[in-house]
Write a structure and sequence with these properties.
Helix content is about 35%, strand content about 20%. It is of the alpha/beta class. The strands form four sheets. A five-stranded parallel beta sheet has the order 4-1-9-10-11, with helices on both faces. Strands 3-2-7-8 form a four-stranded mixed beta sheet. The two termini are about 35 Å apart.
């Protein structure tokens, strides 16, 4: 049996308010509301499971009805929760306000309890972690937990990936130990806050992260595509031209596509094609998961967006 990708981090209820017209400040706006399962690590685990990749999720759920629902969604998709935590109280919630063009207007995060994912908790589950093909954590976890995972990665040789999530959690990693980190995946807003003020231009920021010991930096530039940098080379790929319905989860989906490519033994460029294809599909549906795709369907769609 294939080794699982182990995802560590957030699970939330995503409540998204989709504006039906241009947003107006300090007054009432009409919207359509949707409720889906969310959280960066949870989204990635869910998508990978739907694509046939074995996956474990280490996350925190409340013991309320939302927590029960989130766990049910995960297990139904094929995500294993052997080392996850159930806490007293409410589950985490992400409330997003989506502009009429599908972009994010603003968002709120409440009842997040990712601080409960401690090095001590992970140490109890070392045997499970040792079975991983990749370790992935979102930046919602504590710095000391991320550094414990990086040390574990360096000891075992299991590649460790950090997804910065957004600017506030990414800032925590500005001075963190990153020596040996396999991959970090910032967008154009997150990259600068990961670096010192001396690194002003993108190339300087990339070079600073490489000097700090990061093996690969995958920079997401939205509709302009993405670029993968390491000490040997850089690879760029344009994004498909599509009509965006909902931006939620597009970054999570691209990382899921990249990891599927790695699971299938593909090279970096083909992994980026898979990543962009999956992200494009997610941008055209409500919510953060492309539930309409199987691995076979996704692989066939690559040539739709990137004809030979």
């Amino acid at each position: 049996m294939s080794k699982p990708v182990i995802c560590i981090g957030a699970s939330f209820v995503d409540e998204l308010f989709h504006a039906t017209d241009e947003m107006l400040l300090a007054t009432t706006n009409d919207a359509i509301v949707t409720k889906t399962a969310g959280g960066v690590s949870r989204n990635i685990a869910h998508q990978l499971a739907l694509l046939g990749v074995p996956v474990q999720l280490i996350s925190v759920f409340g013991n309320d009805s939302d927590g029960g629902w989130l766990k049910q969604v995960c297990t139904h998709a094929g995500v294993k929760l052997d080392a996850s935590i159930t806490k007293e109280g409410l589950s985490g919630k992400y409330t997003g306000i989506i502009n009429v063009d599908g972009s994010l207007f603003s968002a709120f995060l409440t009842n997040a309890a990712n601080y409960l994912i401690t090095p001590e908790h992970l140490a109890k589950h070392k045997d499970l972690l040792k079975t991983a093909s990749y370790l992935l954590a979102d930046a919602n976890i504590n710095i000391n937990t991320a550094e414990w995972l990086l040390s574990f990665s360096n000891e075992t040789g299991i590649p460790f990936i950090i997804e910065p999530v957004s600017v506030p959690p990414a800032k925590k990693f500005n001075e963190a130990n990153l020596i040996g980190l396999y991959l970090i995946t910032p967008n154009e807003d997150e990259l600068p806050v990961l670096c010192s003020e001396k690194a002003f231009f993108t190339q300087q920021q990339v070079e600073e992260l490489l000097l700090r010991g990061v093996q690969n930096i995958w920079l997401h530039n939205g509709k302009h595509g993405s670029a993968l940098y390491n000490k040997e080379k850089s690879i760029t790929l344009h994004a498909p031209d599509i009509e965006v319905l909902d931006c939620t989860g597009a970054g999570d989906g691209s990382l899921s596509g990249y990891l599927l490519g790695k699971h299938l033994g593909k090279n970096d460029f083909d992994c980026l094609k898979l990543a962009h294809t999956l992200s494009a599909e997610i941008l055209q549906v409500n919510g953060a998961i492309a539930t309409h795709l199987t691995q076979e369907k996704l692989l066939k769609l690559v040539t739709k967006y990137y004809p030979e």
